[in-house]
Every structure is written in structure tokens, then in C-alpha cells.
Fold:
Amino acid sequence: MHVVVFYCIFATSTQMKIADTNMKSILEGRPNLEKEVNKIAEVAGYLWQNGWAERNGGNITVNITELVDDDIRQMPAISEVKPIGVTLPALKGTYFYCKGTGRRMRDLARWPMDNGSVIRILDDCASYVIIADNAVMPTSELPSHLTVHARLIESGSNYKATVHTHPIELVAMSHNREMLGKDVLTNILWSMIPETKAFCPLGLGIVPYTLPGSNELADATLRELEDYDVVMWEKHGVFAKGLDVMDAFDQIDVLSKAAKIYIAARSMGFEPEGMSQEQMAEMTRAFNLPR
Structure:
């Protein structure tokens, strides 16, 4: 399958040069990479269908370096060199699929290579170029996502994906200040249904409201991700890391289900009893959970 691609390279003279419109997609002939991008598209569809991705809300960034071959390493840039805004030595020579800035998850679900792009981190570890398929600028939150990925690499983690989205019920619960103490919300959600503790065993970290896209938010998120796989941004959304994009989504999904159960019980006029601390401790022992 041939994908018709139009893009521009800006020379130092700012003269626009139109590239070959018959250029093949980076996915062509690379089934493993295509499978990974299709998985990203699938998750983007779930985020939209769940009502978590209004307009262009949310972001997905996946480290695809292990799927890159020599031909990809030789691919020319299709964008100017772009600054990351921070220097991240651990990312030297890495490659990422990134959702495009201003792009909608519902569109990414159908056309992932028109609404996201593949970037290469350059040797200075402070800048990147887009290499495929179109010169779609990555999310404005790219520095935050890449900072997390750098930390994952530095710590020897095999996690490859980060997802930011706006789960309705979880965001609603973050408006209750009594729930924002350390592990208060974690224990409420764990207690609603056994699967939540089983499949999100580290719980939910909390970052107090911080300006979206700010370095302060990135730093606070990084600190919480030392102990949690999913972090709640108060009155905003969640940020999750995972082995792949589906793993990150699954953790958000089980937390969201628990939040729905809690809110459903409250709407019926009663405070849900929840599993006891003893019952949750029994699960920890029985399934060898980390907490």
C-alpha cells in the first residue's frame, strides 16, 4: 500500500522544497512497527469512545527504538531541527511515535500516520527531527513525555509507552480535596472491585493542580512515577506509563471502572462499603502483589 505524503523541508534560505509524493510509509514492509502503530491507533479510539479525549485532548508517546532498522536510521529528516527544551542524555539515538499537536484522538484512531509522526532524538540529546510519514509537529507536552521516557531508560525499565488522558469519573473525584491525601483515592478505588488492585497494584499517585504543560507539572509527575504507574493530575487528568500503550491504557481503564462503581453507589444514596483492608491484604499475599 502506498501512502501519498506531502511535506516540506525548510532550507537555511527558507526556500520550500517539496519532497517526493510517492514516498512509502515507514510502516510498509515493517509488520512489527505497523502492529505497534495500529495498537496506538486502537487505544486512541478507546480514549475517544470513553469520552476521555475531547477535541484534541490527551497525548500518546511510544518508544519504538527496538523496532527501528538500519534503513530507518538512514532516513532523512523531513523537518527542521526542533529543540526539546531540555537535555536528556539517556535518549541519544532513540526514536518515538508521538501524537501530533492539535490532533484529535478520534482522527488518530483512523489515520495514525496523518495525526502523529516518528521522531529521531539527535546526538546532542536536546533536539529532534521528524522522519516519517508527515511533518506533523509532536504534542506541546513532548518535553514532559520525553523526560519520563529518559527516566525509564535510566532506571532500566522495560516500559515503552506514556499516555495522558481525561477520564471523567477520576477527574471528578479529584475535585474532592479529602480524597487527595496520599493513597486515599488509591484505597477507595482498590476496594471497589478486586481487579483494580490486581491490575493496578501500585495504585494512583496524586499531583496537586499545576499549570498544564509546565516544567513544574513534569517534575511533579516524574517524582510520583517513581512509586506509581498512574498519576492523577488534580482537576485535569491522568498520566500513565506501561510496557506498551495497551498496558498503560488498561491501568487507567480499571481505575476508571472502580471510580464508576463508587460514583454509581453514591448516586444510589449510599456510601459503598468496599473491600476491607484485611481483604485487600489477603489479595496482596495471594497474588504476590507489590503492595
Q: What stands out?
A: The longest strand covers residues 116-121. The chain has a mean pLDDT of 92. Residues 245-267 form the longest helix (23 residues). The radius of gyration is 20 Å.
